[in-house]
Every structure is written in C-alpha cells, then in structure tokens.
Amino acid sequence: MKKIVGIVLIVLSIGLGYFGVTQFVNSGESVDVLGIEISAEDNKQKTSSFIYLGLAVASLIGGVALAKGKS
C-alpha cells in the first residue's frame, strides 16, 4: 500500500512541477513599441508558481521515501 501512495505522490509531483514551471514562464510579458521594450510582471503569479514548485519537491521526496521504504 505504501508503494502505491508513493507512486501517486511522484506522479502528483510531476504534475505540480509542470504547472508551476508553466505558470512561472507565463507570469511576464513584454512588448516592443518603437524600439522600446515594455515589460510587465505578475508577482502574485510568480509567488504561487514558487509554492507549486515547493509542493512538487516535497511530494517527490515523500513519494520516493514511501516507494523505497520496506513494506
């Protein structure tokens, strides 16, 4: 049973990591107007993407620990 929960946590960490990276990449936009680059960043979205990445790391560590542990 522990191995199944560990595998589920590993899969969850992959999903959370992907979502966090995607959200981080999409948090800033820039536009080039008359040779001047104008950029805008969404700091709230960056903060939430770091939270998702932290949760992904935590669930990966927990999943590996459960999957490797003795039954």
Question: Describe it for me?
Answer:
With 71 residues, the chain is an alpha+beta fold. The protein is built from two helices and two strands, in the order αββα. It has one domain (2-68). The chain has a two-stranded antiparallel ribbon with strand order 1-2. The chain is rod-shaped and about 65 Å long. The model has no long low-confidence stretch (mean pLDDT 87).
Question: What is the compact description of this entry?
Answer:
This protein is α+β, with helices and mostly antiparallel strands and 71 residues long. It has helices at residues 2-25, 43-68; strands at residues 28-33, 36-41. The chain starts with a helix and ends with a helix.
Fraction of residues in helices? over 70%
Query: Gap between N and C termini, in Å?
Result: 8 Å
Output the structural class. Answer: alpha+beta
Shape: rod-shaped
Helix-strand sequence: HEEH
Q: Total number of helical segments? A: 2
Percent of residues in beta strands?
15-25%
**Radius of gyration over all CA atoms, rounded:** 18 Å
Number of strands: 2
- Widest sheet: strand order? 1-2
Number of domains: 1
Mean residue pLDDT: 87
